[in-house]
Write a structure and sequence with these properties.
200 residues, alpha+beta, Rieske Iron-sulfur Protein, four-stranded mixed beta sheet, four-stranded antiparallel beta sheet, 23% strand, disordered N terminus, binds FE2/S2 (inorganic) cluster
């Protein structure tokens, strides 16, 4: 199910905090994911297709329309995938964090070893550090954190804020204030061209 032209894909939303260019295309599924910040994920997950169907699913996402400072959310296997085109400042903020400042020192990156440390390089796309691709589900009890939409409060670390119990994530998606115990997870993905990724 390729999204070769994501600008017309109704499951993708575009947010731009810097210019507030309001290109927001939100399908019903994405709206449930993005807007349902107070909804526990397992409730939504019950409506998903069975695992045997989902296990084959992968999606292609065209990142070309996503400018620096913008974020989009796509759905993959029934889960919201947060994709942020980070600014230079957001990258620097994440790189400046020492591992001993982190609640969870592991990268939680499906593309790396389980023991990989949670450096910014191990969280960001390989050789494309402006891009952060992760499963947008809080690791506490499964709420959908805020930080993707225009005007969202992103927490004191500039990443994402989970309104359910106050967890905060930095610009690499690493939990900095609990009760969430782990960083948000990085799904399996790879760049298939300079501007396209395949998730799954
Ligand atoms: Fe996110 Fe509890 S579900 S802080």
């Amino acid at each position: 199910m390729a999204n070769s032209d994501s600008s017309t894909d109704p499951s993708i939303s575009y947010d731009d905090d810097s210019s507030r260019r309001d290109v927001i295309l939100i399908g019903a599924a994405a709206l449930a994911a993005i807007g349902g910040a107070a909804v526990l994920w397992p409730l939504l997950d019950q409506m998903n297709p069975d695992a045997s169907t989902l296990s084959l699913a992968s999606i292609d996402v065209d990142l070309a329309p996503v400018e620096e400072g913008q974020a989009i959310t796509v759905m993959w296997r029934g889960k919201p995938i947060f994709i942020r085109h980070r600014t230079a400042q957001e990258i620097k903020d994440a790189e400046d964090v020492k591992l001993d400042q982190l609640i969870d020192p592991l990268a939680r990156n499906a593309n790396l070893a389980d023991t990989a440390p949670a450096t910014d390089a191990n969280r960001a796309a390989p050789d494309k550090e402006p891009w952060l691709v992760m499963i947008g589900i809080c690791t506490h009890l499964g709420c959908i954190p805020k930080g993707q939409s225009i005007g969202d409060y992103k927490g004191e670390f500039g990443g994402w804020f989970c309104p359910c119990h106050g967890s905060q994530y930095d610009t690499a998606g690493r939990v900095r204030i609990g009760p969430a115990p782990e960083n948000m997870y990085i799904p399996p993905y790879a760049f298939s061209s300079d501007t396209k990724i395949k998730i799954g």
